[in-house]
Amino acid sequence: MIRIGIIQAACSPERDENILRTFSRIREAANLGAQVVCLQELFATTYFCHTESYDHFKLAESVPGPLTEQLQQLAKETGIVIIASLFEKALNGLYFNTVAVIDADGRYLGKYRKAHIPDDPGYYEKFYFSPGDTGYRVFQTKFGKLGTLICWDQWYPEAARITALKGSEILFYPTAIGWARSQDEAVNRAQYQAWQTIQRSHAIANGIPVVAVNRTGWEGDMHFWGGSFMCDAFGQILFEAPQDQEVVHVQEVSLTQSDEYRVHWPFLRDRRIDTYGPITNRLIEEE
User: Fold this and answer.
1) Which one of 11, 41, 125, 231 is the catalytic residue?
2) Tens of pLDDT along 147-163?
3) 151 an active-site residue?
4) Is 38 a catalytic residue?
5) Which residues contact 94 (CB under 8 A, 6 or more apart)?
6) Quick check: is 32 in a domain?
7) Annotated active-site residue in 89, 114, 169, 231
8) Which H or E element spans position 184?
9) Domain span at 245
């Protein structure tokens, strides 16, 4: 078993305040027995992608960099693995939405840069982020091999499959997703159910647990819907957070069930990889 902590929080406009509160909650999760803690997408700031503003580029920093170093010290202090989503400045004019993974001894293990970048009302990420260039990553930590994807990646089964085939034992999704103020309850409910269903499907199809950590609270006209959850390797919900509350939760997750589920539901065995070539095409036109 592995004990996974999630931190679902509302963010303020004060970056330093968000960081201090998150660090306090990481220590709280460690005291509750967490071995791995995953933070929500862009945890240090409000979700600035609601608008296109050049001023927001000032929020970015190098990865590894000052904030990563603080997280390394905290990981070493608490003895836990930390998965942290950051706004990365790689070069003047080149920015990424990035996850840094830090081992329980404080070592920086590397980064994953978000592959799928949305551009929708309220989510103008293409203005800020370049498509990730790291490929899909799996990190060998003290407590297991962890795969990290980010938010919009969660809608793409190809990303989950590749990460699983690389040996990931758990799939993590730091997330920032919510409802527009103008939407009605029926639309809200349908969107949330689709969001959870697609990720539980990744767990089932790949036979690995999934952990999704979302933010909560109002930011402008967006209500982040919380609902962070963990499911086992057959998609069964182990924990689901409320939609409108901040939460620190630690949950035991099995790393041994994957083999059992994959033996009895041998999706990986029965894959017809010889038929999948067309998947790399943008469009498949019948002759």
Assistant:
1) 41
2) 999 999 999 999 999 99
3) yes
4) no
5) 130
6) yes
7) 114
8) none
9) 2-270
